[in-house]
Design goal:
392 residues; alpha+beta; Trna Endonuclease, Chain: A, domain 1; 2 domains; 5-stranded antiparallel sheet; 13 helices; 40% helix; elongated
Length: 392
C-alpha cells in the first residue's frame, strides 16, 4: 500500500469550493445550520482533514468495551470510528441526530453500518471482510483530471469494484464502491482525494433533516469513536511523512509481573515460568539500554499492536522487536513462536500503512538454520551477545 499524495498538494480551485458552498446553500431549512453554515462546511470539505477530538465522546461506556473483540473485530470498529471522526461534519454534536451506527446480522455474520442522513455511507463485515463505501463524484473527477488519482486502473488492480447504486433518490452525484477487505478500504481512505470525496457526500447527507431517535445506539457510536483513535493516529503519521507517531511506540516499557497465585496443574512448572519472565525482562532491558546509548528511546506497543518493544532510528525508520527467552532446551519452540509473532505484528501494522523493520531477539540460538529462516522473511535475528556490535 502506498500513499503518494502529500497533505499540501492542491488539485482543486477556489471555484470548486464555491460550487460546494452553492450546492449546500440549497438546503436552507437544514437543522445543521444551527451548528455551522454552507461556506464553513464547504471549506471543511476541502480543508486539511483533522479528526474530531477523542474526548468528549458521544456517550459514556464501560472501560472494558474492548473485551471480547479479537484483532479483526477491533480493526473493523476502528475503521468505522475513523470514518466518523474524519468525515462526518460536526460529528459530536450531531450524533444520534444526523448519523448513527448499527450492528446487525443477516445470517452470515455481524455487520457494522454507518448511516448519515437518509443514506448508508459505510457498511462492513465485523470479521474484516468486504467493505461498502459511498463517495461524492466531484472530488474524484477533479483528482483524476489533475493526475493525482487513476481510478480506472488503480481500483481494479486493488480489487475495488464499482457496482451499480440503486439509491438514486438521495444524492445522485455519488459512487458506490466495494472493497474486498478492510485493509484495502483503509488504504483507499488514506488517500487525500478519497477523504475529500467522503467528506463532501457526508456534508450533503448531514443537511437532510432525518431523525434517528428510535435507532440511535449511542454505545455503538462511542465504541467506534474510541476504537478509531488508532487509525486517526495513522492518518496523522502518513500525512506527516513519518511511519509512526510520537516516538515510535505507544507507552513506556514495563517489566512483566507474575500472578500471585500460580496455576496448580501438574504440567505447569512455576519455577520455569518465573525464570522465563526474568530472562524476558533481562533481554528487553538490554535492548533498551543498547538503544539508549545511541540516543534512541524505546517503548512497548505500536498503534495498538502488542509488540514487545518499538522505536524509531535517527532517520525516522520504524522498528519492532519480539523478545523470547530461551532456557532449558526450549530453543526451537521459542524461535518458532517468536518468528510467527513478529511476522503477524508486521503484517497487522502494514494493514495500517505502517512499514517496519522486524527484529527477533532471543537469549541464544545454536542452530544456524534460524539465521536463514529469519533472513528469508526479512527479520533481523539477534542473540543478546550480538547486541554490542549491532546498530539499529
Amino acid at each position: 500500500m502506498s500513499v503518494s499524495i502529500q497533505a499540501n498538494e492542491t488539485w482543486w480551485l477556489p471555484e470548486d469550493v464555491a460550487h460546494v458552498e452553492w450546492w449546500l446553500t440549497g438546503r436552507r431549512k437544514s437543522r445543521l445550520w444551527q451548528l455551522t453554515d454552507p461556506a464553513t462546511l464547504a471549506e471543511w470539505v476541502f480543508a486539511e482533514p483533522v479528526p474530531a477530538a477523542l474526548a468528549p465522546a458521544p456517550a459514556q461506556i464501560a472501560a472494558d468495551w474492548r473485551d471480547g473483540l479479537d484483532a479483526k473485530q477491533m480493526f473493523s470498529w476502528a475503521l468505522m470510528g475513523f470514518v466518523i471522526r474524519m468525515a462526518v461534519p460536526e460529528a459530536l454534536a450531531t450524533a444520534g441526530k444526523h448519523w448513527h451506527v448499527a450492528r446487525f446480522d443477516l445470517g452470515d455474520g455481524p455487520m457494522l453500518r454507518l448511516t448519515v442522513g437518509p443514506l448508508e455511507l459505510l457498511c462492513l463485515r465485523e470479521d474484516g471482510g468486504e467493505v461498502w463505501l459511498r463517495l461524492a463524484k466531484l472530488p474524484l473527477e477533479l483528482a483524476n483530471e489533475a493526475g493525482v488519482l487513476d481510478t480506472e486502473n488503480d481500483w481494479p488492480m486493488r480489487g475495488i469494484e464499482r457496482p451499480d447504486d440503486s439509491t438514486v433518490t438521495f444524492e445522485d452525484d455519488k459512487v458506490l464502491l466495494r472493497c474486498p477487505d478492510d485493509g484495502k478500504a483503509l488504504g483507499l481512505l488514506l488517500r487525500r482525494p478519497i477523504m475529500v470525496s467522503l467528506r463532501m457526500l457526508a456534508a450533503g447527507l448531514s443537511t437532510k433533516n432525518y431523525s434517528f431517535q428510535r435507532k440511535d445506539r449511542r454505545d455503538y457510536a462511542t465504541k467506534a469513536w474510541q476504537a478509531g483513535e488508532v487509525l486517526c493516529a495513522v492518518w496523522a503519521a502518513v500525512h506527516a511523512g513519518s511511519p509512526a507517531t510520537g516516538q515510535g511506540f505507544d507507552r513506556p516499557y514495563a517489566a512483566p509481573t507474575a500472578p500471585e497465585l500460580m496455576p496448580k496443574q501438574r504440567s505447569y512448572d512455576g519455577g520455569a515460568y518465573l525464570a522465563g519472565l526474568r530472562e524476558h525482562d533481562r533481554l528487553c532491558q538490554l535492548l533498551i539500554m543498547h538503544l539508549r546509548e545511541s540516543g534512541l528511546p524505546s517503548g512497548a506497543g505500536l498503534h495498538g499492536i502488542p509488540v514487545d518493544l518499538a522505536w524509531r532510528d535517527g532517520q525516522g525508520r520504524q522498528f519492532i522487536a519480539e523478545v523470547k527467552s530461551v532456557i532449558n532446551g526450549n530453543e526451537s519452540e521459542q524461535l518458532r513462536v517468536g518468528l510467527g509473532q513478529v511476522l503477524e505484528y508486521r503484517h497487522r501494522l502494514a494493514l495500517l500503512d505502517v512499514q517496519v523493520t522486524a527484529v527477533l531477539l532471543v537469549s541464544r540460538y545454536g542452530d544456524e538454520a534460524w539465521l536463514g529462516a529469519c533472513a528469508d522473511n526479512d527479520v533481523v535475528l539477534l542473540a543478546d551477545g550480538d547486541l554490542p556490535g549491532w546498530t539499529a
